[in-house]
Amino acid sequence: MTHYFFTVMPLFVVFFWLILFLLDFRRNDTAKRFLTLFLGVALVNYLAHWFYFNHNYPVYRLLDSVWVFTSLAVYPLYYYY
Q1: Mind listing the pLDDT tens digit for each residue in 32-54?
Q2: Fewer CB atoms near the end CB (10 Å): N or C, the chain?
Q3: How far apart are CA 27 and CA 44, in angstroms?
Q4: pTM to 2 decimals?
Q5: Backbone φ/ψ region at 19: left (φ over 0), alpha (ψ -120 to 50), beta
């Protein structure tokens, strides 16, 4: 049980901040918009990690290419932010 709790925590942290930034999306702030995009990509990346570390390999096989794309996309998004 604690294994599932600790493997889902990064997903919840990113999801929490993504929801907060989406609720305040009305402002015309470019930095917040890029940070919201970064958090969305990181959320998909951590979701793929969660499936892998909880031994759900059939779903992870489908998300493996998505994981590679999001892993490579996170660094330029953070750099541009």
Answers
A1: 888 899 999 999 999 999 999 99
A2: N
A3: 25
A4: 0.85
A5: alpha
